Amino acid sequence: MKAKLIAVGDRAPRWVAEGFEEYRKRLSHWLPLELVEIEPGVRGKNRDVARATAEEGARVISALPKSPLVVTLDGRGRPWSSEELAQRLERWRGQGLDLALLIGGPEGHADEVLARADESWSLGPLTLPHMLVRLVAAEQLYRAAALLANHPYHRA
């Protein structure tokens, strides 16, 4: 199983990029993780936000690997504990599909992206900067993989 984190936005702050890279490296032998950055839609005065979100959604859909299991990161999704995420990761591996985790733009995911999702994951009730979500998702994937491997990283 391979995973892609497909995220709207580019130019992550250095500390986010470095943190993401650290967890990507740690994950590499359990779950290879690739970051795919999607150009945000144009926003601003006299710009149609719905159109920008729809354009982002089309770019996200086109970046999906062939026949993936799609999980959106969305505040309206289901919150999972680290242990629950580990159980899901184990189940996803058993399906034999690659994993695509999707992070939307400022207004969230386009309707077509939500319709394509197999599951939706919430990191909790807090509103997080989307760049930080990349780092938190990578760390939680590492934690879940470590749990499955009985690695001491996760100590409850």
TrEMBL record:
Localization annotation: Cytoplasm
Keywords tagged on the record: Cytoplasm, Methyltransferase, rRNA processing, S-adenosyl-L-methionine, Transferase
UniProt GO molecular function: rRNA (pseudouridine-N3-)-methyltransferase activity
GO cellular component entries: cytoplasm
EC category name: transferase
Binding, S-adenosyl-L-methionine: L73, G104, L123, G124, P125, L126, T127, L128
EC number: 2.1.1.177
Entry keyword annotation includes Secreted: no
The reaction(s) this protein catalyses: pseudouridine(1915) in 23S rRNA + S-adenosyl-L-methionine = N(3)-methylpseudouridine(1915) in 23S rRNA + S-adenosyl-L-homocysteine + H(+)
CDD domains attached to this UniProt entry: RlmH-like
PANTHER family: METHYLTRANSFERASE, RIBOSOMAL RNA LARGE SUBUNIT METHYLTRANSFERASE H
Subunit (UniProt): Homodimer.
Family membership noted in the UniProt record: Belongs to the RNA methyltransferase RlmH family.
Primary role: Specifically methylates the pseudouridine at position 1915 (m3Psi1915) in 23S rRNA.
Name of the featured protein: Ribosomal RNA large subunit methyltransferase H
